[in-house]
TrEMBL record:
It comes from Ostreobium quekettii. It comes from the Eukaryota. This is Uncharacterized protein. The keyword Ribonucleoprotein does not apply. Transmembrane segments: none annotated. The chain holds residues 5 to 176 of 203 of the full protein. Keywords: Nucleotide-binding. One of its GO terms (molecular function) is GTPase activity.
Length: 172
């Protein structure tokens, strides 16, 4: 039987985009309307026995004053999830800047995923949407990222996101 491999995974993205909420949904099945802003970074682990992997997750702080810490968390990471908020064009700009930074300084083999979070806010009447799905998908395709829209609140595509990364990890 193959031994379970550890995989370092980092979440990056603008403050308030929902990084902690995605991690908390995935790891603990919880969601809080008043999730506290992360200070520095938070570390959580989650085994995925079906994929023979244990994720070691660094949930970074989006506040700009923590930007200089980010390399400590993405260095050596097997995968990164870059999160933006579909109701915030600014957060999408920030996400693209993270992709640039990772592609410039990160590991060339890093698996990268782009998550357009808070999809629950743009269901039906989508007047609050600021980032069109097709625009984000085109950007992701161009840069070799896996792309999905998620809702941490409604648990939409959250397991799928992490499982897709697990599938793409090189076999130990
Ligand atoms: P920092 O730690 O400051 O970088 O923020 P973060 O990216 O970790 O965001 P966080 O998970 O703290 O979420 C920010 C706010 O958005 C919180 O009030 C959450 O409840 C809310 N939120 C997160 N995900 C969703 C979602 O999918 N839908 C909705 N409607 N709200 C969400
Ligand atoms: Mg957070």
């Amino acid at each position: 039987l193959a031994q379970q491999q550890s995989a370092k995974l980092v979440l990056l993205g603008e403050m308030g985009s929902g990084k902690s909420s995605l991690v908390l949904r995935f790891v603990k099945g919880q969601f809080f309307d008043y999730q506290e802003s992360t200070i520095g970074a938070a570390f959580l682990t989650k085994p995925l026995p079906e994929y023979n992997v244990k994720f070691e997750i660094w949930d970074t702080a989006g506040q700009e004053r923590y930007h200089s810490l980010a390399p400590m968390y993405y260095r050596g990471a097997a995968a990164a999830i870059i999160v933006y908020d579909v109701t915030s064009a600014d957060s999408f700009v920030r996400a693209k800047n993270w992709v640039k930074e990772l592609q410039r300084t990160g590991n060339a083999n890093m698996i990268m995923a782009l998550a357009g979070n808070k999809a629950d806010l743009v269901k039906g009447d989508s007047s609050s949407r600021q980032v069109p799905t097709e625009e984000a998908r085109a950007y992701a395709d161009e840069h070799g990222l896996y792309f999905v829209e998620t809702s941490a609140k409604e648990a939409t595509n959250v397991d799928e996101l992490f499982e897709e990364i697990a599938k793409r990890l090189p076999k130990a």
